[in-house]
Amino acid sequence: MPAPPFDPITFAVLKNALDTIVDDMAYAVMRTARSPIVRDVLDYSVTICDRHGRILSQAKTVALHLGAVPDAIEVVMQRFAGNLAPGDVVVLNDPYAGGMHLPDIFMFKPVFFEGALSGFTVVIAHHCDVGGRVPGSNASNSTEIFQEGVRIPPMKLFDAGQRNETLVSILRANVRLPDLVLGDLDAQHATCSLGERDLRRLFERYGRDELEGYFDRLIDYGETLTRKAIASWPEGAYSFTDYIDGDGFSADPIPICCTLTVKDGHIHADFAGSSPQVRGAINFHLLVREILNLSHHPLRARP
Q1: What values do phi and psi take at 118, rounded to 5?
Q2: Which residues, listed in sequence order, are joined to residue 46 by a DSSP beta bridge?
Q3: What is the Cα 292 distance to its own chain's centre?
Q4: 70 and 52 in contact (C-beta within 8 Å)?
Q5: Which pLDDT tens digit goes with each residue over 124-135?
Q6: Rounded CA gap, 225 and 125, in Å?
């Protein structure tokens, strides 16, 4: 089917509609979360993805989390291929399955329109505790992931609208502040449902073909802006070194080195000279991966 004709006014309306939806979702998290780290510190992120898992819009919250969304949603789509339905909600926190560190629980709610998967609403929140050897589940002197708390592989918190009471019971028994943790999960769920409602309204107003055509144009628009910005930078190599003040076992500074090379409209990131893996739980390579999200976009730096 040919793409619908492009109308710049419709494009602007839809772009701002998506921005409004994610900002409304962000306010909903802030108003309904239970823990201070989410409600007051605002350590959470909100985004909307299309049916392919591409980020369409992000709220004015913590952008760092969103670098992991393409990896995480790819795992979700592979794990539940052909097994997603209206009312489903998928959660995960396992860094080996697209997550970041264990306190960051990802929540994905598939959005269906006319019986077909049409997108995802996403909320990521840093929870106040997920178990493990220390309160808060976050210590630089941990030496293995099993000390850090409960690992949640991609699994359904809601299955066709029915809450997974087994998972809820496991979480309740393994975290120090179950009311806050489950309360924040409820806030994430309510927020994903809010975004689902508003995204469905866009589909009902514009129809699938037209809306998905503008989603593609929105992705292209973002790439165009990024390439234009890169083209304005002087070509050359730019280097910087920073240090982490110890790893919990040693006070020796830990160097993080990066050289960015700008050439022919591309950026190449080279971390040669950085510290090898250290004993403590602050190894930076996963953080760099999430920041740059190296494997999912031609504009992103190569490892």
Answers
A1: -125, -5
A2: 123
A3: 13
A4: no
A5: 999 999 999 999
A6: 29
Measure Cα distances from 215 to 4, 202, 220 in Å. 12, 12, 9
Cα–Cα distance, 138 to 147 (Å, whole number): 9
Give 62-110 pLDDT, tens digit per residue. 888 888 999 999 999 999 999 999 999 999 999 999 999 999 999 999 9
Predicted confidence at residue 40, as pLDDT, reads: 94
- Tens-place pLDDT, residues 135-190: 999 888 888 899 999 999 999 999 999 999 999 999 999 999 999 999 999 999 99
Q: Of 159, 65, 147, nearest to 105 (Cα)?
A: 65
Find where tokens 């209206």 sit.
86
Backbone angles phi, psi at 141, to 5 degrees: -100, 20
Report the alpha-carbon distance of residue 8 to residue 137 in Å, rounded.
48
Q: Which residues pair with 112 in a beta bridge?
A: 117
Q: How many residues does the chain have?
A: 303
